[in-house]
Amino acid sequence: MSTNLPMTIEVDPKRCVRCGLCMNDCLAKVIIASDKGLPQMISGGESRCFRCRHCLAICPTGALSWNGETSNSCATLGETPAPEMMENLLRQRRSVRAYRRENVSKETLDRLAQAMNYVPTGCNDRALFFSYSRSIETTDECRAAVAKYLTTRSDEELPEGIKRYGKFRQALASGEDVFFRNAPHFVAISVSPEARDAHIDPYIAAAQFEMLACSFGLGTCWDGMATSLFNAVPKLYARLNIPDEFTLKIVLLFGIPVVRYARAPLLPPYPASEVSFSD
Ligand SMILES: Cc1cc2nc3c(=O)[nH]c(=O)nc-3n(C[C@H](O)[C@H](O)[C@H](O)COP(=O)(O)O)c2cc1C
Fold first, then answer.
1. Are 121 and 58 within one domain?
2. Is the pLDDT of residue 3 over 50?
3. pTM of the complete model beyond 0.90
4. How far apart, in whole angstroms, are the C-alpha atoms of residue 140 and residue 223?
5. What is the mean pLDDT of residues 191-205?
6. In CATH, what number is assigned to the domain containing residue 57?
7. Is residue 160 a part of any domain in this protein?
8. Which residue minimizes the CA distance to atom 15 of ligand 1?
9. What percent of the chain has pLDDT over 90?
10. 168 CB near ligand 1 (under 6 Å)
């Protein structure tokens, strides 16, 4: 990444066709036309730039570079899924609570992690942090630590936020993996509380992770219980290696499912209204 370079744009005058697309698409309105009609960043624009790179993405001739990133450093556009495929994905996705005891391949883990670089965040703050459990062994250690913690404490000894988990003591003692559903992996998503949309950004990331994982044939399950547990127990939280400036928001289990759903039940529609401004 080139974020340490001075934030600016450069334009190759031979390739620029002066179409103005970069200026029109700049959310921060920090790009204007020079005397020669070439795009340039306004004075002080560096600090107002959202770093969204729309100017770089939209330039039809690849004349513009942003902060040292050129058209050559961008990915070429691929096909996007047909609506029917996306609809199937949304309709057929299920929370999976039974997984094969098998690691997801390193290649798939890397692709999932890399795709997270593209999730949108409010004001493009990009203040997310991802902690991955990349192997069954690591998740096993986590499972064991959680089970040990809960089975060796009375309800009175449990922190306020997770007293309700005392009811799982017996199930945990008998080997039932109430918190991690025998998943081989999980990702814990954290956010800087400074992020302007800190209350939303991690959940968008989780939803996108879930959809992509589904397209790889993986199952996922949002794990609000593990999230609460980690947040309530500092010594378990510490194992996630989340930097101090971030706060854990959601844990997502994932792995190869052993359950296969034969159909997609139709769900009742949410109440909805049509917005109208006319009287
Ligand atoms: C924010 C959030 C937290 C959740 N936490 C848990 C959880 O702790 N344990 C669990 O088994 N499922 C959890 N779920 C999954 C829901 O229970 C699940 O979406 C619901 O049962 C409907 O099933 P479906 O996802 O297969 O449609 C959570 C889902 C969301 C969105």
1. no
2. no
3. yes
4. 16
5. 98
6. 3.30.70.20
7. yes
8. 222
9. 97
10. no
3-state class (DSSP) for residue 161: helix
What percent of the chain is helix, strand and coil (3-state, nearest 5)?
A: 40, 15, 45
Say if ligand 1 is within 6 A of residue 229 CB.
no
Q: Indicate if ligand 1 lies below 6 Å from the C-beta of 100.
A: no
Please tell me the predicted confidence (pLDDT) of residue 4: 53
Burial of 250: CB neighbours in 10 Å, binned 0-12, 13-18, 19+: buried
Do residues 42 and 95 touch, judged by C-beta distance below 8 A? no
In a domain, 268, yes or no: no
User: Any idea which residue has 């959310």 for tokens?
Assistant: 27
For residues 89 and 191, membership in a common domain is answered with yes
pLDDT higher than threshold 80 for residue 1: no
Q: How confident is the model over 17-63, as pLDDT tens digits?
A: 999 999 999 999 999 999 999 999 999 999 999 999 999 999 999 99
Residue labelled with tokens 């009287």 = 279
Q: Contact 149/195 with Cβ under 8 angstroms?
A: no
Which range of residues forms the domain containing residue 172? Answer: 83-255
114 to each of 109, 160, 194, how far by Cα in Å?
A: 9, 37, 23
- Mean pLDDT, rounded, for 260-265: 97
Q: Do residues 102 and 149 both lie within one domain? A: yes
pLDDT at res. 279:
77
Ligand 1: atom nearest CA of 225 is: 8
Q: How far is the CA of 207 from the centre of ligand 1 (A)?
A: 12
Same domain, 171 and 44: no
